Amino acid sequence: MIIALPMSRGRLATHFTKAPLIGFFNQYHQLITTVENPALAGGCSAKKALLNLIGAQKTAIVIVQHIGERMLGKLLDAGISVSKGDSCDSIETLLTNSLDVNRRMVDASQGRASLHHAKKGGCCASSGACGCGQSKPDQAAPLLARVEPMSNLVASYSRLRPAGK
Question: Domain named Dinitrogenase iron-molybdenum cofactor biosynthesis: which ranges (predicted)?
């Protein structure tokens, strides 16, 4: 199991995509490698390169203090668990706590909303070809928001009664 940790000055960086380095640790909390963060170049393609890097390292868990909601959603969609951490904690504490499922971020709405994204009119507003995969506005909508309610269903609990009654 590989755990990715965005790092700044030997600690957890406060923001995932703005961290100078990404450290990759194994299940024994040993540092495997440290890689410069490709997302620092800015733009959708640089952030996609970060996602590809995390996938190439076969990362199971990413530890973050702050992360944008779109990046969080992409990590979750890729099947990567995201654990909430604090830059005040030691790396050893962060790695140990990353296994605690109560610290997991499970929905993109738990990330920070991007003010810049909204100002630009959303991703791919002008060209439609930045490569981030969000060219259609409805793709960002949560899955449950697109499901039609089925109010005409009636639940039957008759099979839950104890036998013989």
Answer: 10-95
Cβ-based burial of 3 (10 A; exposed 0-12, middle 13-18, buried ≥19): buried
Q: What is the pTM of this model?
A: 0.72
- pLDDT tens per residue across span 78-95: 999 999 999 999 999 999
Q: 38 near 23, Cβ under 8 Å?
A: no
Contacts of 65 (CB under 8 A, 6+ apart): 12, 13, 14, 15, 16, 84, 85, 86, 87
Burial class of residue 61 in the structure, from the number of CB atoms within 10 Å of its CB (0-12 exposed, 13-18 middle, 19+ buried) = buried
- Of the candidates 61, 47, 53, the residue with the CA atom closest to the CA atom of residue 17: 47
Reply yes or no on whether the pLDDT at 137 is more than 90: no
What integer pLDDT is reported at residue 133 of this predicted model? 55
CATH 3.30.420.130 describes domain 2-146:
yes
Q: Which sequence spans correspond to the domains of the chain?
A: 2-146
What are the CA-CA distances from residue 48 to residues 41, 82, 132, 138 (Å)? 11, 17, 7, 20
Bridge partner list, 21: 7, 36
**How big is the CA angle at 72 (ends 70 and 76), to the nearest 5 degrees?**
115
Q: 3-class DSSP state for residue 46?
A: helix
